[in-house]
Amino acid sequence: MSLAMILSFALCLALSMMAQAVHYENPYMGGCRSDELPIRITGIPGAICSPHCDDGPCPSDVPKNVTATPQCALRDPTGSQYCALICDPNGKNTCGPGASCRALSPIGLCTYDEVNTHFFRYARMNMTLTKLGK
Q1: Would you give the distance in Å from CA 122 to the centre of its chain?
Q2: Distance CA 77, CA 111 (A)
Q3: How far apart are CA 84 and CA 16, in angstroms?
Q4: Which one-letter DSSP state was computed for residue 89?
Q5: Backbone angles phi, psi at 11, to 5 degrees
Q6: pLDDT less than 70: residues of the chain
Q7: Phi, psi torsion values for 31, nearest 5 degrees
Q8: How far apart are CA 47 and CA 110, in angstroms?
Q9: What is the pLDDT of residue 5?
Q10: What's the pLDDT at 2?
């Protein structure tokens, strides 16, 4: 293998890793970062990669074309808290391509639309929406 081919492969790999270097990505398409869990919320279609927020604020790096606001808004049965993208269900799609703003009156929550889940393993958690602003 030539040096040019090795460098080309390394550059492609680095660019691929940079493209997925944000939080709240689509768990159906490439998985989540090491500090996130792929979660589904009971009663809400779709899933999202969700970082923990027990020890600090939610990461603000969101995928391209997302204008929804990251907030510490989910809690599992053990009390652990997770971030979610909060959107306006009456506004334009602020969740980005492949995602939808699911209405939870009066706010919305971004989730990626479900695709073939045959190869996708997720942590199905009984998440609940917590009081925002905590």
Answers
A1: 12
A2: 20
A3: 24
A4: T
A5: -65, -45
A6: 1-20, 93, 116-134
A7: 85, 180
A8: 8
A9: 42
A10: 56
